[in-house]
Amino acid sequence: MSDAMLELVGVTAGYGRTMVLSDVSLAVPNGSAAAIMGHNGAGKTTLLRAAVGLIPVKSGSVLLDGQDVTRMRPNQRVKRGLGYVPQGQLCFPQMTTMENLQLVTTRKSEIDEVLDTFLALRSLLGRRAGLLSGGQRQQLAIARTLLTKPRLLILDEPTEGIQPNVVADIEDVIVELTRRGDLTVLLVEQHIGFALRSTARYYVLESGRITGSGDGGEGAFDPVRAAMTV
Amino acid sequence: MDALTTPFLTGTATGAILLMAALGLTLTFGQMGVINMANGEFLMAGAYAAYATQQLIGNAGLALVVAIPVSFLVAGLLGLLLEVSIIRWMYQRPLDTLLVTVGVALVLQQLAKDVFGAQGDPVVLPSWLNGNIPVFGYNWPFRQLFTIVLALAALGGLSAVLKYSTFGRRIRATVQYRDLAETLGIPTRSVDRITFFLGSGLAGVGGVAIALISGTNPTLGTTYIIPAFLVVVAGGVGQLKGTVIAAWVVGVVTAFLTDWTSGSMAQVLTFALVVVFLQVRPQGLFTVRTRSLA
Asked: What is the C-alpha separation between A196 and A187, in angstroms, rounded?
């Protein structure tokens, strides 16, 4: 087992000929939680998509638990322990909540275990996912990814566009996950307070480059806010 | 009464063939953005597989029963070969796939001409399909009813696979949201291959029905491919329910128009009607309902 669960080494990536990330390097230690902060358009989602394998890396490498996965397809990275909850509460809208979960596993015990964490989903198992609220869909997205039994969980803006009372529930779950110890968490989040409270380390991304980093916690609030103020 | 019954029943049987041709197309077009113009030639391959099976077995009844899985396999394997050798390099490039598969269709037609000859070959009907049922004064041929039963069986089988099997859920997931499916560990490329196999195989089964109605012919696929795409687009890409309704409507409307005008004018008018329909409802009959853009 490597010291870093996820390591990006000099990663340059983008869409077509337009490069969004430029020579980005970062490491998320095994069992820890880290946050990536930055303005809209800084390249946060692109960074996660490059780590997951949804966009090709032009140069540099992506290491998962010490193993080079740069050329692997996303589904192969999932088998090696990478779990990804994309931005936007994505689900398969024409499938029921249960069918969304059964895409990963049909084992009832495993689904039951995840539903114990997301109790609100229990009464919605037969409902089509496209008809769930944003908060319910986000809970479904996290539950579904947890069924893949990740060792590294990557969450892209998990509380974006969700009503405040549900945000609190989702934040509680994420904080709980970061404290498990057997799970490494990489979080992109606009809510600076929540991101810093729940992670041990932060990186500031600006115009596709890492421009700052440090330890998380309440003490990091002012430097991060300063770094993110135009 | 006969003026209404005849085109209605004949059109329903034509709709059943269109349905078998369109089921595969709606999955491959929806899932992979592939416009497979060679799908008509998979109908043709299925028809010739039925003919060849009958030549081998002799007994028309037994040959028909054997021909259905054989045609499914032959057309399915042709589709798989097409996917592995050409299509997989062209996902989400519909215009490129359209051009390439037109070329593949021409090659397959020529191949059929070389192997079986340019003239069509008749397929002998089993005795139990060689009769008629009187329906409101029209003697409806058993073979048309058989075509409808075959299409419903194909539809039922496909629906059951999509709804209840893990693999079917994976196909639906890949059709709806490919990237998300990948990030859940679903090997979408393998899913694509098997979907192509299934879709092409279903067209092959459609070919058996065509062989029973009008025999084999190297160019029979060209008759069905454009209407089949009309069905896919009008029904809503990737929507089985829409495909079923659109296939039936296109089949029946074309049959009525053929009765009132001529075969070619009916095709033109059906095409025009679908174009007008798509102006009003560009997404087709059915679409995905969600509370957001997801």
From this structure: 10
Q: Where are the domains of chain B?
A: 2-280
Reported as a single tens digit per residue, the pLDDT across A147-206 is 999 999 999 998 888 887 777 888 888 888 877 778 899 999 888 887 888 788 889 999
Question: Which residues from A are below 8 Å from B293, CB to CB?
Answer: 88
Residues of B in contact with A79 (CB under 8 A): 185
Report chain A residues whose CB lies below 8 A from the CB of B292. 88-89, 134, 137
**What is the 3-state secondary structure of chain A?**
CCCEEEEEEEEEEEECCEEEEEEEEEEEECCCEEEEECCCCCCHHHHHHHHHCCCCEEEEEEEECCEECCCCCHHHHHHCCEEEECCCCCCCCCCEHHHHHHCCCCCHHHHHHHHHHCHHHHHHCCCEHHHCCHHHHHHHHHHHHHCCCCCEEEEECCCCCCCHHHHHHHHHHHHHHHCCCCCEEEEECCCHHHHHHHCCEEEEEECCEEEEEEECCHHHHHHHHHHHCC
Domain A4-224 falls under CATH 3.40.50.1980: no
CB atoms within 10 A of CB B121: 16
**Please, which residues bridge with residue B146 across strands?**
none
Partner B contacted by A74 (CB < 8 A) = yes
Domain boundaries, chain A: 4-224
CA-CA distances (angstroms) from residue B98 to A69, A114, B31, B34, B108?
A: 35, 45, 15, 7, 15
Contact residues on chain B for A106, CB-CB shorter than 8 A: 166
Task: Identify the architecture of domain B2-280 in CATH.
Answer: Orthogonal Bundle (1.10)
Residues of chain B contacting residue A90, judged by C-beta atoms under 8 Å apart? 177, 180, 294
**A99 Cβ under 8 Å from any chain B Cβ:** yes
Shortest distance between the Cα of B170 and any Cα of chain A, in A, equals: 7
Closest A-chain CA to B286: A94
Residue B88 gets which letter from DSSP? G
Cβ distance A145 to B293 less than 8 Å, yes or no, reads no
Closest CA to A186 of A215, A153, A141: A153
Give which of B27, B92, B174, B184 to mutate to test A binding, by max A Cβ within 10 Å: B184
pLDDT mean for each 10 residues of chain B (294 residues):
84 93 84 86 96 92 94 96 91 86 96 92 88 87 92 94 91 88 94 92 93 91 90 83 92 93 89 88 71 40
Q: How far is CA A137 from the centre of its chain?
A: 15
The CA distance from B76 to A42, in Å, is: 47
pTM reported for the whole predicted model = 0.83
A200 to chain B nearest CA, in Å?
Answer: 26
